[in-house]
Amino acid sequence: MEKQDKIYIAGHRGLVGSAIVRSLKKQGYENVIGRTHRELELTEQASVRAFFEEERPDVVVLAAAKVGGINANQTAPADFAYSNMQIQCNVIKCSHDYHVKKLLFLGSTCIYPRMAPQPIPEDALLTGPLEETNEAYAIAKIAGLEMCRFYKRQYGDDFISCMPTNLYGPYDNYDLEGSHVMPAMIRKFHEAKVSGAPFVELWGSGAPLREFLYVDDMADACVYLLEHYSGEQHVNIGTGKELSIRELALLVKKTVGYEGEIVWNQEMPDGTPRKLTDVSKLHGLGWRHKTELEEGVKLAYDWFREHVSDARMGK
Hints:
The protein is α/β, with parallel strands linked by helices. The protein is built from 10 helices and 13 strands.
């Protein structure tokens, strides 16, 4: 990439996209553009094509997606599959047709098999059954990743993909109907502290192991890949470190300053038992994360407290 390139961030106001915008501008890329959902409906092919015809971006980062936690994925699988595949097909095809010189597609580690080897290497993709609780989203993301690979193979397009681990940080989704585990915990513990509630109920057993990456670190990794990587294989982005959901709950509880009890509702699903990425490929390319989990949780909670009135809270 060159500093004067016009860089389109699809999903520029979300958790991932906003962090990538911050990272690009911090590193001297000022010609960064985006469109809100109201301004550009990415599931509509004609609208996406009209946007590319008008703007002619040099670089595209595809961070827009319909996302959610276990409950959202289980209750609306058709919506997750359709919306994400529509977005990906429209943006990737237009990036090819309008000669975008580089595209970065962001997937998710949920694309890997439920019982993938741990830590999960990139070549574990499509080697076993997916986790049922997010299968529709995973299938859509796999389709997007493979599209990038096929366009590179058939046309030589410089389309690359990365697979971030579980992310958290500024502009996360705190709507309990669709949020992921970290923002859900932050909101629950905060509201329990404010209201004086004697306990907080969390889903599952607390036993599953997860890896978490502060979103600004992820964004820096994405910019690094845009500048230094053109390979066909996707690249995992993570810390290579894990902890149990129970341990995470204790850390968030401590950070928030909540003194009540935690009640685990074991009638609710746990999801994948373990999901740790093998980040040796990323380390080999010269990038490592900077923000450790304890610091990152504090940063995330500080942001939430400052923006609680305008955070994505749902009902």
